Amino acid sequence: MAESQTPTDKLARRGLMFILSSPSGAGKTTISRMLLEAEDEIKLSVSVTTRPPRPGEIDGVHYYFVDDAEFDRMVEEDDFYEWAHVFGHRYGTPKGRIRNALKDGQDFLFDIDWQGTQQLYQKDQQDVVRVFILPPSIAELERRLRSRGTDAEEVIEARMERARSEISHWDAYDYVVINEDAQACFAKVREILDAERMKRQRQTGLIPFVRELMS
Ligand SMILES: Nc1nc2c(ncn2[C@@H]2O[C@H](COP(=O)(O)OP(=O)(O)O)[C@@H](O)[C@H]2O)c(=O)[nH]1
Ligand SMILES: Nc1ncnc2c1ncn2[C@@H]1O[C@H](COP(=O)(O)OP(=O)(O)O)[C@@H](O)[C@H]1O
Known about the structure:
alpha/beta, Rossmann fold, five-stranded parallel β-sheet, four-stranded mixed β-sheet, 8 helices, about 20% strand, globular, binds guanosine-5'-diphosphate, binds adenosine-5'-diphosphate, nucleotide-binding, ATP-binding
């Protein structure tokens, strides 16, 4: 290859909106963190929430924590791509600079529920990849929620109550992965990301590259 040509592993491509959803406690935060640690080329879309921080959660890193008045103001000013009520609090995806960054090939990871997934998909089908994580069993889901130790008993009960209705949305996703062993689940999620990055429609750099091959 001539030196002036772009290396083939650096061909331009559109970024993707990689959504991980699951019933609470199935492990999407765990898998998201593993993915963000392993992959330099994907950024977390940090959501805005009215829920109080859990121990160890940092404002601006895990969520932007705001009060109801601030959330109202952001809704009025059309600052959200989407937002939804979950467990008595509100959660939203701020618009930020996602659209322009996608064009530059930046991938974004979204840890959002099925309502947000639906809204993002309606707005931007070509860039969205939807992955749903299931627990290996309901008993294991409950064990994980308890072992996390972050929620009061009534919150755990509410999350278990809601788990079945969240699971019922599994068929609105492109991929479904069962999180039995976290490492194995992470490896599968990473394979999905790798394959989606290679989709022809996303590889905008292929057009000049193939033209050159055929000339
Ligand atoms: N629609 C929407 N859902 C969100 C957003 N951020 C977080 N969520 C969802 O809100 C739910 C509750 O999140 P959280 O309080 O962190 O508890 P978790 O279920 O243990 O992750 C999860 O299903 C998240 O995926 C957002 O910006 N939009
Ligand atoms: N494959 C797994 N095996 C055992 N425990 C897990 C696994 N994945 C996640 N956990 C644990 O289960 C709890 C809930 O996981 P978390 O990632 O917070 O779920 P979510 O974000 O879906 O609510 C955490 O304590 C986490 O360490």
